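Structure first, sequence second, as always.
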């Protein structure tokens, strides 16, 4: 049990070799029931040296043997830290007890499930709250600028959307998860429609009844796009800088980022009257509609940034980054600046140095 484990302590990173930490997931299985996993999350913290000096152009294209490049094969997690007022959980980290937030514990549970179900999924994962010593200000100042290279070098960036409920029973949890799953399943439907017929034709099909989705499906989709994950500041760089696969986890579903972006673009492209009629359908069924249009705009903008980077336009105009960050949420006010430095031209970003020890009066 984690209660009997000693507290965890960090070992310093070797800055000369551009060292980072990665956690290595250990998906334990109950011997008496091989299909069920042991509740306690166990992982090892490993130090990994970079084989050269990390830079934007050093990121290996898909298909190369990642073990011979940079920090090797690993996934990078993108998630919401969550309120510090929520109860904490503990994991076993290199044999010691380590405290994590409820949202991170949920994300780790999903990652362990991925590793158990897919042998090709990386066992090593970079997670800011664990791989950076958050109590060491000097280390944070050095590691945060490196995040641009970490997310760019990751074999896959995993976006873990947090559940938005506090469940009191397993039955309640199952009902909520089913709602999540319904919304997540609407995403590929709209993504396919975006590719096949486009927003204009889909709007005509919806208005004539040729295509019909249930109010439950629409309501669940709205909740998917209203999730607080999409308001988080750090996802701007984590998604925009990802150079390979992006996987969105929601409920029991794994959704490729491209399908999320396509669904968002299609819904935003629907005529206002069509979007309003869908919202009225949801409200008429007794379900509430949480505002999410700004989140849809952010998703579409993030996809545009990714497309620009692929087309060798790596640095958007600073006003674009500022516009995305303006309404985004950040626990630390400094991150309103630090969180977008990696997107702008180095001639500008290098003039600002991260300092989490500086106190503003």
């Amino acid at each position: 049990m984690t209660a009997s484990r000693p507290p965890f302590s960090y070992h310093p990173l070797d800055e000369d070799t551009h060292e980072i930490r990665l956690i290595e997931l250990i998906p334990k299985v109950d011997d008496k029931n091989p299909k069920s996993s042991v509740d306690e999350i166990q992982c090892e913290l490993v130090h990994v040296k970079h084989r050269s000096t990390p830079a934007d152009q050093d990121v290996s294209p898909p298909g190369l043997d990642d073990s011979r490049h940079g920090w090797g094969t690993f996934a990078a997690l993108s998630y919401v830290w969550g309120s510090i007022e929520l109860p904490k959980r503990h994991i076993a980290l290199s044999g010691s007890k380590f405290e994590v937030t409820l949202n991170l514990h949920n994300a780790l549970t999903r990652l362990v499930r991925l590793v158990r179900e897919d042998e090709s999924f990386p066992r090593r994962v970079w997670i800011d709250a664990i791989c950076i010593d958050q109590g060491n200000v000097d280390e944070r100042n050095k590691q945060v600028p490196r995040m641009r290279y970490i997310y760019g070098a990751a074999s896959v960036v995993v976006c873990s959307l947090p559940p938005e409920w506090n469940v009191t029973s397993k039955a309640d949890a199952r009902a909520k998860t089913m709602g999540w799953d319904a919304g997540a399943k609407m995403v590929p439907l709209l993504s396919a429609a975006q590719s096949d017929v486009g927003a204009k034709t889909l709007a005509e099909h919806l208005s004539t009844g040729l295509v019909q989705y249930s109010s439950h499906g629409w309501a669940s989709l709205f909740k998917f796009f209203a999730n607080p994950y999409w308001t988080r500041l750090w996802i701007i760089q984590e998604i925009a800088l990802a150079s390979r696969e992006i996987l969105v986890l929601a409920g029991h579903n794994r959704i490729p980022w491209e399908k999320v972006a396509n669904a968002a673009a299609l819904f935003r492209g629907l005529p206002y009257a069509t979007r309003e009629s869908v919202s009225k359908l949801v409200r008429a069924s007794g379900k509430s509609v949480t505002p999410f249009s700004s989140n849809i705009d952010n998703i579409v903008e993030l996809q545009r940034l990714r497309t620009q980077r692929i087309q060798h336009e790596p640095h958007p105009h600073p006003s674009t980054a500022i516009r995305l960050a303006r309404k985004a949420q950040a626990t630390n006010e400094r991150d309103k600046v630090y969180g977008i430095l990696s997107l702008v031209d180095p001639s500008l970003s290098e003039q600002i140095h991260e300092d989490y020890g500086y106190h503003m009066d």
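Margin note: The two ends are 44 Å apart (CA to CA).
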